[in-house]
Design a protein that fits this description.
Shape: elongated
Number of strands: 7
Order of helices and strands: EHEHEHEHEHEHHEHHHHHH
Largest sheet: 7 strands, mixed
Number of helices: 13
Distance between the termini: 59 Å
Strand content: 5-15%
């Protein structure tokens, strides 16, 4: 089956290779990659026969919005646009309406698997109308491992499920992080690499994330000393919490894990200074003085 892959980053390139290995004909466009088969979206269209399928595997936000509208201008009736990035499901529902008004199909595909997807397959959560999803099933099944693909619902459902998936991921990662932090500060000289290793076998907390953590300790050492304690977020955790609020669903673990990421980015937190000052004021508790800045350094 023919497919036009737009975006050849870590995910897009792996997906392209996996599809090619499964016998699909994949044409590619990425202005930053020399090995692309097309130097424009128009040329990408010309390399495929109708009805075409354009798969966007690019960052959510402005670039996805721009590319989507460029595709709307060149796609023909009956063509399909697939968004495989981490777009907000509400944007996907809007894009579905815009595409439908032009007779173009729009499918939102939540994709999980990271850089390991090429080897083990990508989990796919797909939303959209039955007709285009059914037509693209050979592609979905080639990308996914056995039982790793599902048409989860109508427009927006794929990205909604992927959003919740990533919110859960936040909580799992934070739980592992806190557990290993407790062990790091304990009275025992514990080997995090060794412990993460044995937990992979028979333990009730074994998981793929734990295997990845073990691999990280293997690469960077049990203290992870060459990794900065700064944790970014790409938006899905925030969206998950927003939807939980809209639906009156308590999500304390996911919310706390997101706030922990915020906290990791503030080396000196003003809120901690306020709390320390208050303890000193009402109870006479001692406060620690800030070390004076070295000569020539920023006094902040």
């Amino acid at each position: 089956m023919q497919l036009g892959m737009i975006g050849l980053g870590r995910m897009g390139s792996g997906m392209t290779e996996r599809l090619t290995e499964h016998g699909h004909e994949v044409h590619t466009y990425d202005p930053n990659v020399a090995t692309r088969t097309a130097d424009s979206l128009q040329r990408l269209k010309e390399q495929m026969g109708a009805p075409r399928a354009f798969w966007m595997m690019i960052p959510a936000g402005k670039i996805t919005e721009q590319t989507f509208h460029q595709l709307l201008e060149i796609a023909d009736e009956g063509d399909t646009i697939v968004d495989g990035g981490n777009s907000n499901f509400r944007d996907s529902k809007r894009r579905y309406v815009e595409a439908s008004q032009r007779g173009i199909h729009f499918v939102d595909a939540g994709v999980s698997g990271g850089v390991w997807g090429l080897e083990v397959g990508f989990c796919l959560m797909v939303g959209g109308d039955k007709e285009p999803v059914k037509r693209l099933e050979p592609v979905f099944k080639a990308l996914a491992p056995e039982n790793g693909y599902a048409h989860v619902g109508p427009s927006g459902a794929g990205h909604f499920v992927k959003m919740v998936h990533n919110g859960i991921e936040y909580g799992l990662m934070q739980s592992y992080a806190e557990g290993f932090e407790i062990m790091e500060h304990s009275e025992y000289d514990l080997d995090a690499h060794e412990i993460s290793g044995i937990w992979r076998n028979g333990s009730v907390v074994r998981s793929w994330l734990l295997e990845l953590l073990h691999a990280a300790f293997e690469t960077h050492g049990s203290k992870l000393e060459d990794i900065a304690p700064y944790v970014e977020d790409s938006g899905e955790g925030r969206w998950t919490i927003n939807e939980a609020i809209n639906e009156n669903v308590p999500t304390p673990v996911i919310a706390a894990s997101l706030f922990a990421r915020f906290q990791s980015r503030d080396e000196i937190r003003f809120s901690a200074r306020v709390a320390a000052a208050l303890r000193n004021q009402f109870g006479g508790h001692a406060v620690r003085a800030v070390e004076r800045a070295k000569a020539g350094s920023d006094p902040r």
